[in-house]
Amino acid sequence: VDKERTFCMIKPEGVARGLVGEILTRIEHKGYRIVALKMLRLTREMAEKHYAEHREKPFFRELVEHITSGPVIAMVLEGPGVISGLRKLMGATNPQEAAPGTIRGDYALETGQNIIHGADSLASAEREINLYFRPEEIMG
Ligand code: DAT
Ligand code: MG
């Protein structure tokens, strides 16, 4: 669907390293529309909701510490196939396995510092968009 939407976040290390412009450029050059965007610092509660699917993982605590460690950029992206398309722009979860040319492949080395988050399915995209944005904050 042309109006498919996904949720994307530039994680604290991406903001701290000054990669916001580079990442937004890649997203826009691909042709996706940024239909909502904000900078915020996650509370522990928000982080635990965001990563609820990983609650039982050994790295959950670390994950919550990390995502709350500094400001992030949260956004809603729109375009044909944007959910899987963003995942392709991001590259593999482990940046050492991410292909060159992908965001993680080009700018990261550690799984725990992999710069960018993107929803992995339609259900996740809808859940995450609603976690961060009110309907009136999303430009149609
Ligand atoms: P992705 O961010 O590619 O969707 P995921 O949903 O499996 O990956 O995991 C969420 C985040 O958790 C990931 O971006 C980095 C961290 N993570 C994943 N696997 C990890 C591991 N084995 N050790 C430490 N951190 C991990
Ligand atoms: Mg994931």
From TrEMBL:
The gene is ndk. This is Nucleoside diphosphate kinase. PANTHER family: NUCLEOSIDE DIPHOSPHATE KINASE. It is found in: Cytoplasm. Belongs to the NDK family. It comes from the Bacteria. GO terms for molecular function: ATP binding; metal ion binding; nucleoside diphosphate kinase activity. Residues 3-140 form the Nucleoside diphosphate kinase-like domain. The active site is at 117 (pros-phosphohistidine intermediate). Homotetramer.
